[in-house]
Structures are given as C-alpha cells and as structure tokens.
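Run log // design_07
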C-alpha cells in the first residue's frame, strides 16, 4: 500500500476553502502551476476531480463537499501533534506521579512535596513506592516516574541524574543513652549496641570498614530494612542508629545525634529518571519541585 503524502492535506484544505487554484496558490505561497500539479495529485489520490470548471470559476464535487468539513479539523489535529507541547497549566493538571524512594526520604521530604503539589497543582497526585533495590527496570518501562537515592554502578547508563544534596552519616540515640553526653570516641561508639540498616542481606559496610581500620568492631543487635525503622527502634531502646543526617532530618526530632568519630565518606542523594521524560513539561515541573523541597530543607 502506497503511503499517502500528508502534505496534500494542506493543499486540499486551501483549495476547498478558496475554491480557486490561483487564490489557494497565493495562500500557500506557491506558483499557480505548482498548485495545479498538486491538484492533479489530489485527484489521483482521491479518485475524484474535486473541483470542476463552471463558467469562469470552479465548483466542488459532492466528494469535495463531503471532505471539506473533515479536512480542516483533521489538519488542525495533525498540526497539534507535530507542534511543541502547550504551556503547562498546573491548575488544570490531572496526573498521578509515581516516585520510588527510601522510607526515610518519603517521610522526611514527602510532606513538603505534598504541600507544594496542593498549592501549585491541586489535581496532581503522588504515589510513593518503597525502594527495595537499585533495579532500573521500573524507570525504563514507565512504572516509575522519578526515583531518589544514591546512584550505584548498576544504574542504567541511559538514565538522567540530578544531584539533590550531599549527606553525611551520623549516630542517633535517645536522649537517655550514654552517647548523648560527652565526647563520642570510636571506642565508645563501637562498644554500643547497634542497629544495622540493610536491604536483602546487603549491609552498608562503610561503617564497619571504617571501624576495622581502627581495629574495632560493632555489636549488631538488630537489622532493619530502612532508616525510619532504625530511628523508631533507637527511640524505644538503648540502641545506636547510624543514618544519613539530612535524609532523615525530621525523623530525628526528640533524639540526640552526634558526628561519627570515623572517616566515613559523604554520600550524594540524587534523583533519576528515564530520558523519555526529559521534555515532558509536567515531569520537568515535578523534578524542579523535588529539588526545591530538598533545597528548602537545607540546614
């Protein structure tokens, strides 16, 4: 089957609107001979003469009259498809965004992000998914719009990445804990009972490697899957939670925190998305909103 020349729709619309080859040519800035050749191609494509001579002018055939009311809307639809996206109207936006993040990020930054959506785009909705691994497939297949976390070597190479903030690990204990007072040395820190945050049996070894370099080892009393759970247990018992400071800022209310007496590298928390969403105005707005919420929470 021969693929139709969609440029002929523009010619057909001009001819049916003007009812004259000469006027249609002027409208499209073509020569009369070029317009006559285009009319010949239209006649061949439709199998109908479309415009026939009547005295000194042209009149439309029944087929042309039937097409006239269809061509204009169809052409405008094609032009809309090929045009740049319209200016985003946040007040009219109706969309659900899916964000995959750790429990700490959701609980710490989720409330101000929800408030921002309510103020700027009341019809938008957020769906938070707990990030259990670093698999890029949900971003790649469109199940997730945006993801936050530390970018690992296993992240999809095509993903877009924008840094949100740098963070450091701190120790957090309840106020009655011995480490809430006095200088916290590596020896005092290691001697306490600790909460390990690990996903799928993969512990965060940064802390243990730093302790091992000083000939120390910590006592892991309990293992949990997220920072929120670690802080909840530290609040309830004489346990030490080691968590990213900014990542869990609001969750530390009522607790005591201290810098780690160890050389533990900082981490960079970023947001990730698939390049298919780069030019989407609503997604651009979401990315800017997440970045602004994180910036506003800076100490």
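design_07 sequence
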């Amino acid at each position: 089957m021969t693929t139709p020349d969609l440029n002929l729709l523009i010619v057909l619309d001009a001819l049916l609107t003007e009812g004259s080859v000469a006027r249609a040519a002027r409208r499209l800035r073509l020569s009369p001979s070029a317009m006559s050749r285009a009319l010949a191609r239209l006649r061949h494509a439709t199998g109908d003469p479309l415009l026939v001579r009547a005295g000194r002018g042209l009149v439309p055939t029944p087929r042309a009259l039937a097409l006239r009311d269809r061509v204009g809307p169809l052409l405008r639809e094609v032009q809309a498809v090929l045009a740049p996206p319209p200016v985003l109207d946040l007040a009219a936006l109706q969309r659900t965004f899916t964000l995959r993040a750790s429990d700490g990020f959701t609980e710490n930054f989720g409330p101000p992000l929800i408030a921002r959506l309510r103020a700027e785009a009341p019809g938008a909705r957020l769906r938070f998914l707990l990030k259990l691994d670093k698999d890029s497939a949900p971003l790649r297949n469109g199940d997730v719009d945006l993801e936050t976390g530390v970018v690992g070597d296993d992240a999809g190479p095509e993903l877009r990445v924008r840094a949100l903030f740098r963070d450091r690990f701190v120790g957090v204990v309840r106020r009655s804990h011995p480490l809430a007072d006095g200088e916290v040395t590596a020896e005092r820190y290691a001697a306490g009972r600790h909460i390990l945050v690990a996903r799928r049996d993969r512990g965060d070894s940064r802390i243990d490697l730093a302790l091992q370099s000083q000939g120390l080892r910590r006592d892991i009393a309990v293992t949990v899957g997220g920072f929120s759970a670690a802080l909840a247990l530290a609040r309830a018992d004489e346990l030490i939670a080691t968590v990213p400071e900014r990542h869990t800022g609001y969750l530390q209310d009522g607790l005591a925190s201290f810098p780690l007496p160890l050389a533990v590298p900082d981490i960079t928390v970023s947001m990730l998305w698939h390049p298919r969403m780069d030019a989407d105005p609503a997604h651009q707005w979401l990315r800017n909103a997440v970045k602004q919420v994180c910036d506003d929470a800076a100490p």
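DSSP finds ten helices and 13 strands in the chain.
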